[in-house]
Design a protein that fits this description.
Elements: H1 2-14, E1 16-18, E2 21-23, H2 28-45, E3 50-57, E4 60-68, E5 85-86, H3 91-104, H4 114-117, H5 126-131, H6 159-165, H7 185-197, H8 201-213, E6 219-220, H9 221-227, E7 235-240, E8 243-248, H10 256-261, H11 263-266, E9 268-270, H12 272-283, E10 287-288, E11 291-292, H13 296-302, E12 307-311, E13 316-319, E14 324-328, E15 331-340, E16 343-350, E17 355-361, H14 368-382, H15 389-414, E18 428-432, E19 437-444, E20 447-452, E21 457-460, E22 462-465, E23 468-473, E24 476-484, E25 491-497, E26 507-511
Antiparallel strand pairs: 1-2, 3-4, 3-17, 5-9, 6-9, 7-8, 10-11, 12-13, 13-14, 14-15, 15-16, 16-17, 18-19, 18-26, 19-20, 20-21, 22-23, 23-24, 24-25, 25-26
Helix pairs in contact: 2-14, 3-7, 3-8, 14-15
Amino acid sequence: MKRTVISLLLITILGFSFNGYAQEVLSQEDILKNVDQYIEKVQNEWKIPGMAVAIIKDNKVIHAKGFGLKDLSKPDDKVDPNTIFQIGSISKSFTAAVMAQLVDQNLVKWEDTVKNILPDFEMYDPWVTANMQVKDLMTHRTGLAGQSGTYIPNLGYDRDDIYHMFKYIKPVYSFRGDYQYNNITFIVAAKIIEKLTGMSWEENVQQRIFDKLGMTSSSVDGEGFLASENVALPYEFLDKDGEMVINPLYGDEQALWWLTVIGPAGAVNSSANDLIKWAQFHLNMGKVGDEQIISEKNMKYLHKGITITSQNENRTTIYGQCWFIEQTKKGRLYFHTGTTWGMTAICCYFPELNLGMVILVNSEAPSEPRYAIMRRTLDLFLGEPDKDYSQESLAEWYESSKKSAEKKEKKDAEIINIPAPKAKALVGKYTKEALFGDAWVTLEKGKLFIKAGKQGFKREMVHVNGNKYNFRCDGHGFDITFTMNESGKKATSFEIDFGGGEDFGPWTRISK
């Protein structure tokens, strides 16, 4: 008996055994040292310019640190915990939280139909129009294709434009029948918030969340990002011939108009020191100090899983009201990622350990490096063996990149180059009246331009092949293909490729 007790004590002192491996129980100081070293390793492997990380444990920020540079051209411009990044889709959880507050105030119910609140609301299917509820708007199961409409704002359309486009966008699956990630339905959620409060979505987030939580450096939309002083420069992440390439994004390439329009789905700007307060708020079930900002009942609703998004032998992941809930043998992890033009992020919390973490990145790198750091950190606090999550995914990335490069090379070799039509044949006014309105193709000093959208963005078209051109607008590249008349002397219409298989049909020529 004594020998058994002594053995158990030795196991407790020396470490735990997981899957046959002895693991030393690390002190908090050693865990954080390990995490820092791993972050630097991941940062170098994925060519990330700069990162900011914060960790909270047992209601105390135990770590907040910057890594790398805000701008690679400025060696002394280092990232710190107060550096501002765009947090992308983590913003969705802010919109859901505001809605939860309105539910607490009895201004709305989760089961209320959208049509009853917004009489002019219309989806493509009249039955869906009549039956869509508030709770459906933020759970990605409306019937719209994944990412449907995401790039419409880049052409210069605003929230009102997109709100009135819903009735023209065909669903690709039955209402509530599947999980397909989407951004534009959050514009409808914002419309509800604005109607019920008499304030903009931006004002609601500021007053109900930023001010209450003391998120003093956080802001919303493109203007807020531009107004920030201690701010990271966005970097695009490209795969070129099997190699990682990063480039800084300036001006129009930062897609700040898109950021503003997509607002309730992705427009919050924040720092590690600010965003960790958001993780703590959720760990504290809606309480800040002595004030219950959101009732515990509605916090539980926000944290309730609704739709299974993935499942394997190791974990089941469910989407709730703007949080992924990952259930494993280790416990329950809540997280959300975010991606904008040149910025990525993750915010997570693990109630069993009273642990939260945020990772902000000024590169549009894949999700793998963020996940690797998050999972490594969680493992260490759980007392599990070190695991290099990055190394495996990095090898997979290079293998996939190599195959893509080979596939592209083969495809390019098969292309038959077709000359462009005469530039004057494309010039004219086109329309897709119900959905997008009018667009103009002009010829100026030998260059072709297209202008569309409420903002009147005018962008040069570059010839690709045959009747296909490409133009960049607000950070996104669009292929545009013209259809010519029988004689080939005049274009009769054009179609813009929005990606993801979205087909909105042609703009038809209505004049020269």
